[in-house]
Each structure stands twice: as structure tokens, then as C-alpha cells.
Amino acid sequence: MVKQTIQIFCRIKPTKQSPGLYEVKSTDTLKNEIFFYLPHGVSDGYINNKKENYIFLFDQVFDQKSVQDEVFLGVAFPVIKNVLCGYNGTIFAYGQTGSGKTFTITGGAERYVDRGIIPRTLSYIFKHQLETPSLTYTTHVSYLEIYNETGYDLLHPNHDGTKLEDLPKVSLLEDNDGNIHLKNLSVNQAFNEEEALNLLFLGDTNRMIAETPMNQASTRSHCIFSIHLTIKEQNSPTIRKSKLHLVDLAGSERVSKTGVCGTLLKEAKYINLSLHYLEQVIIALSDKSRNHIPYRNSMMTAVLRDSLGGNCMTSMIATISIDKNNIDESISTCRFAQRVALIKNNAFLNEELDPKLLIMKLKQEILDLKNELYLLTGADYNSNLTEEEKLNNCICEDIKRSSHSSDRTYLEKTDEVNKLKELILQRDNEINILVAMLKKEKLRSELYEEKPLKESLKTIATNQVQFSSSFYEEANSNYFKGTKEKNIIAVNHVKKLSIDKQEEFERFQKTYFDNPAIEEKKKGLKIRYSDAKKLGEQVNKSRINISDDLVDFI
Q1: Alpha-carbon torsion 182, 185, 187, 193, what sign?
Q2: What share of the chain is helix, strand, coil (3-state, %, to 5)?
Q3: Are strands 169-174 and 313-320 parallel, antiparallel or unpaired?
Q4: What is the three-state SS of 4-28?
Q5: 163's torsion region: left (phi>0), alpha (psi -120 to 50) or beta?
Q6: pLDDT digit of tens for each residue in the chain (554 aa)?
Q7: DSSP states of 147-213 as a string?
Q8: H or E element at residue 216
Q9: 5: β partners
Q10: Strand (E) positions, 67-133?
């Protein structure tokens, strides 16, 4: 487990004029400080208590002359290295409209050197895969757009020629473990860099872009480009799964400052509201006394739940414009970054066992145990004898062997056989656990609309469970050592255990002395559940009304 705070960076948008309102300095801790100087003007009046100097600390500040390659190496490269090792990562850009977020994350289309973090990340990942042939990589990408608090799949196969609103909406699902799943979001496999870049360009083409007073090509939505990696080492039963979110947030802007109306006004309200909820989550995470984190207030915060205060290595890049008209927004962005820097994430290495390889390994181990038992007892397990015949043969073999061997040798042999039986039962339980893992993986793949697991893997798991269960029954009947009376007791015990479990449970319910009280409590719980459900509906209605009022207010 790696514990670290969210790394914060600042990038200053180039400007033709040098306003002299800021200065960047280096500190002894290899970090950068940015100073803002806002001297009082004559128009402000003779009495003005407004603060003149502001100081903000960042892990690194990229000044106006910084190029895309420097930003990639400073911000993205450390996160990508950890993602290739099996850790989750997130990089998101935050800032006002027109400050350079999209240029930093995606890049410019005119020059090759203007490529942003996403295309450079894809290039590095596939180059690393070619340089490490001992590892097998599987790469999938997805592209989610959140427009007016509704999710859309930018890589949906039916996107060509249709409007954004006509697409199936992406919805949030939460499993029993608290993990968020995105329904109707396609996950597309990319075999090389070219295919991944084509998916990126397709998604960028479908994004919602509009002209605003602050930016001629302003992105009017939040976009999350996700890279899912599966890393597997040859001849190893473990696999590593990691994901990297590259987030381009919509620009924050004051409605009163821009003077927009109509559709742009509605978009600005939703953007500001979602960013307001994001700030609420940041404040709650930085306050150690808060127990509740309002992730569910917006779709964006719910999707980025792991990235903010979870199992993830996260970096934020704050983009600012130092023009005199935008200096207040730049200071607000820097303040937000300082709050983000207080959040600590606990990143875990995402390792799990490969069910396919482990089942095959256990199958071979059971076959080896079967052969070892055959050498010890001489019984033919592939014969078509009934269970009673096998038990009788076992008794005869025991009597014959006991007449020619000492009691000590007999006990040692019995103990060894019992140990082998216990080992077989242990392997049988492990296979049952693996089958449960396969069912869980199948459910996850259906939620993400991935291809189902291969039929061969299902067949291996089913046959293995049937084989191990029947084999243990044979071992239990063939290797039971003792007198004839003990074997008869064992047979009766097995018949007794074959009673239907449901009948046993019903018999227990009827004979249990406190059953009437339990039934009475069950009725009371049903009434309480009905009342709680009604209260929950009232709370949801109130929450919707509050959100609508807040949208109108903003």
C-alpha cells in the first residue's frame, strides 16, 4: 500500500503581454511557489482593505514557456509508471474557461509537438509493452462525457449521424462492495497505438463544443478518457488490473461575467453546479472530522470516487490565465488546488489470481494425489464398481493387509491416507472459490458490456468440480480403515446426511421453542421496512426539489 497526498501542479497560459502580476520561485523542498501581486488602484478608493499579495505552493509550476513534453514528464509520467505496475491512477485538469485544460489533456491538432497528455500516454504505454515481451498486456479504453449531469458514451458504435441526446444514457450502478459500475458504457479493446488513437479522435469529434464569450471552442461537458490494463506474467497464476482516468473538466465561469443566455446559460448552470459538488467533496475529504463524503451529489464525483480519497494515485494540474481580467479566477483556481493537496489516497497493488491457470494447476495436483493413493492402496478408481462393492473390497483388503502387517504400520498407512483425503478436500474447496470468482467476473463483464468468458473455461470449471466431488466420495468409501462394524456405522452416517436440507430446516422451525416470538418480530420488521421505504421516497423528493432550487439559484 502506498500512502500519498494528491500531487498538484500549475500551468500558466501563454499571453502576448507580460502583466507583471505574478512571480514563480523555487523552494528548498524542490517545489515551486507562485506569488500574485495586486496593488490597489486609485479607482479602488482611499480605504481599501483588500489583500494585495497571494502565495500558493505547488509541486511544480509550468510557466508560459513550458512545452507539452515538459508537462507530460512532470505530471503524467510518474503516474503512468505506477499504472504499469498495477496501481490505479488519475490525472485531471481544473481551471476557468479558456485557460488551456483541453490543450493540456488532449493537445492541439495543428502540430505533432502539441500532442497532449492522452496521446503521449497511449504512445508510452504501447511502447513499454513492446519493450517487455515477458509480460502480456491487454488494453481497453472508454470515453465518457457528462453533459448537463447526464452521461453519454462517446465511443458508442451507433454514434455516427445521431444527436448526443439520442444515445443510450450511461447510468451508475453500485455493487455490494460499494464499487461503482457504468452501465451502457462500452469498453473497446485496442491492440496497438494506432487503434487507441483512432478511438480518442472519434470521441473528441463527438464532444459537445460551443463558442462562448471567453473561448471560441469551449468544451461544454466533463470528459473522462479511461485506460484499463490487464498485466499477466508468463507461468504466473496472478494477474494485475489497473485503470488510468484522464479527466478534462469543463471550465468554470461566472455567468454574470460572460453574459450568456439560452442553452449556454443552462450549460453553465450545470457545469458550475457539478464543480460546486466537486468542491464540497474536496472540502469534506480535507476535513478529518467529517464522516460523510457527498460523492452521490453528482455523476462526476461518483465516477471519480476512487480517484478522490480512494485506491488511486492522483495528480491535478491547475490551468490559469494571468490576464488582468482573469486574475481573480486564477487565484480561485489556486485556492482550490491547495485544498486538493490536503487529500491523502491509499493506493493498493491490484493483484488477483487467474482462475483459469489455478484450476488447471489444481486439476493436475488432484490427479497426482489420485495416482499416489493408487500406489498406496492398489484400488482401481476407474472401475465401474458401485459404492457398496468398493466399500466391501476395501474391508477385505484391510483384513488381508492387517494379517500380514503390524498394527503400527497399519496406523501409519491409515494416517497417510487420511492426510491425502484432507488435502483433496482442501483442493476441492479452493476450486469452489474459483468458480465463485468466475461467476463474479462474468457479472462484471456483463455490466461493462465486455465479451463473456470462453465456454472452454466454463467447461473446465464445471468438470473439475464434478470430478473433485465424485473423487472425494470414492476416497471416503475406499480408504475408510477399521472393522466391519465401524464401516457399517459410516454407511449409516452417510445415509443420514443425505436427508434433504429444506426438510431439516422446516423441522427445526417447528420444534424451536422461540419460533412464535421470531415470527412476531418478522412482522414488526416488515412494518418498519415499509415505513422506512416511505420516508426514503420523501427524502429523495426533497433532495430533487433542493437540487432544482439550487440550479435556479445559480
Answers
A1: negative
A2: 50, 20, 30
A3: unpaired
A4: EECEEEEEECCCCCCCCCEEEEECC
A5: beta
A6: 777 889 999 999 988 766 678 889 888 778 999 999 887 665 555 555 677 789 999 999 999 999 999 999 999 999 999 999 999 999 999 998 888 999 999 998 788 999 999 999 999 999 999 999 989 999 999 999 998 888 988 888 765 545 666 677 898 888 777 778 889 899 999 999 999 999 999 888 877 654 444 544 456 789 999 999 999 888 777 899 999 999 999 877 665 555 556 677 777 778 888 888 998 999 888 887 778 888 888 899 999 888 888 889 999 999 999 888 888 889 999 999 999 999 988 888 998 877 777 777 777 787 777 777 777 666 555 554 455 545 555 554 554 455 445 445 555 556 666 676 677 777 777 777 777 777 776 666 655 544 444 444 445 445 544 544 444 454 444 444 444 444 454 445 444 544 555 676 677 666 766 777 777 888 878 888 788 778 877 877 777 777 666 555 55
A7: ETTEEEETT-TT-TTS-GGGSPEEEEEE-TTS-EEEET---EE-SSHHHHHHHHHHHHHTS-EEEET
A8: strand 215-219
A9: 344
A10: 89-95
The answer to whether 128 and 77 are in contact (CB under 8 A) is no
Residue at 278: amino acid letter: L
| DSSP code at position 115 | B
Amino acid at 102: T
pTM of the entire predicted model: 0.64
